[in-house]
């Protein structure tokens, strides 16, 4: 039904566009007046007036219709003698009624349910009909209003600008509200988690074993269980593992990325640059899961083999393998961004340096790199936040055990990996184990937020210098 | 007649397929200011960039013919460009101080060439260069501040100080005052007058008045050709060539 309505609104709007355009043209010719805007603006004006109020109404209606119907149905069912003790049971009955209406319910149907299903059908019908009537009413009212405006030769151009500005504003508002929504959902679930687990136990605990808390109701927790849970959610091994793998990745990505960026920007001829830059950027387009199985199936076993030959114990899932591959994945970010910032260092600075007799490498080392440094730092920090947020490679190549270790040959794990582990499969949503994922997500979010903030400040500082 | 410092013979420059200079024969006298004038794109800047081989930076640029300094062939493939540029300094159209402190801007060149091994020697070089470029009094208490914090005119004098710091013999100036206001321009011109006692100076300029004020010799370029060269007085009062006459009286260009 809604799709049909949207389709009708669209068709109607489009035809109004042409109507408005030709109508104003004839008005201007007939009465020999100068229009306040181009004829097409009157067309836009009609389109916007015809579609926006109707679409907004449709959206709001669709949001509230199910809620209202549900409360009415549950109330009628209660009046007819249905018994339910809490909200969940009421929901169950409502779902049954809906299923009967759709013909997909195969259980026993008693008289209460049958009556309610009939009532449900009646309400659905009523609501749909009134929706259609109201929408057409709105369209007719707004079209009459806007047609009247057009006849008076209003300043359609200005009005269209105002409406478009409003549309753009709403779009950005949606983007911001979505982000806020995500943050709040993280925040509320985390608060639930921290009501069971002390925040200091979480932040400073050195043992991470959430499986101990498996299928346990947070509300009915006993004192003994609480003691046991206390040291199951220690954050330290995860942040240590995350930083450790990110550090290894940076050891690989920063030198290689930076040097290749310098080569691209300063030494490579136009031809080499045109070919090799896209090739490096292809690295950024490879799905991380592909890197992941490359790390797990090729690099990890290779390291173990080499390690065994050297007489070392190497876990086949090691921080080294994951960090190395992650570093390779990040190279294009560092190289491409630092290439850009080095390129935007003005040629005049290089000329100034050459003119006092500096060689190319002296110029790069002492003039170009210092001038580009804030931008380079920015690109490195962005790469770090990429490394911290990376999941797939670690899941596949670094293992799942939360070891607190600084030996790169052992397996370790990261925040994101643990979130995946916790939420894969069926979960009780009010067990501390599940909620801990939200706490981890929140911590990770805050960490990357801080990094991104610093990175953007650094990049901004760089921009101010040459503008 | 003073000694000839730089001598170009049949100098041709090509940017890819496009020829930018045609058989330029021009002598620059020692400890004199030579002004190069002419409409935009006529090859003045290209010419002075041949003197310190700055055209090397441009991949597609090719230079043929002869250009000599004190009998040494500048265009020689085996010439050490670094030591050439140590002897031939350059000041650019737009002030281009490095994003470093005032002190580091000046000490950059000497450090690269291994001059001023101790801190006090380096301090001395910085002080002398800034004094010679008439900037010392204005900046002596804030040598740690970034060079970019100075005003446009001060920045250009800083760049002149930077060029002087490696103790060159020749200073090339590519429209050094085009980005400056009249007061800063006057200061730079005064400075050029002072500097010519020690250095051979070549200045590219779009201002006839400036050429008259600062130079002893003037060369007029048009479409990559050196049309006329002679004593500044003669060029501006009584040029031989009709085109020069037209240009300096503002009839074209």
Strand order of the largest sheet of chain B: 6-7-8-3-9-10
What percent of residues of chain A adopt helix (DSSP H or I)? over 70%
Mean pLDDT of chain B: 90
**Largest sheet properties of chain B:** 6 strands, mixed
Q: Between the first and last Cα atoms of chain B, what is the distance in angstroms?
A: 32 Å
Q: Please indicate the count of domains of chain A.
A: 2
Order of helices and strands of chain B: EEEHEEHEHHHHEHEHEEHH
CATH architecture of the largest domain in chain A: Orthogonal Bundle
What is the C-alpha radius of gyration of chain B, as a whole number of Å?
18 Å
CATH second-level architecture of the domain at 4-96 and 170-248 in chain B: 3-Layer(aba) Sandwich
Separate helix tally of chain A: 16
Q: Unreliable segments of chain A (pLDDT under 50, ≥5 consecutive)? A: none
Query: How does the helix and strand content of chain A classify structurally?
Result: mainly alpha
> Could you name the CATH topology of the domain at 4-96 and 170-248 in chain B?
Rossmann fold
Share of residues in strands of chain A: under 5%
**CATH superfamily of the largest domain in chain A, called what?**
MetI-like
Helix content of chain B: 25-40%
End-to-end C-alpha gap of chain A: 55 Å
Number of E strands of chain A: 0
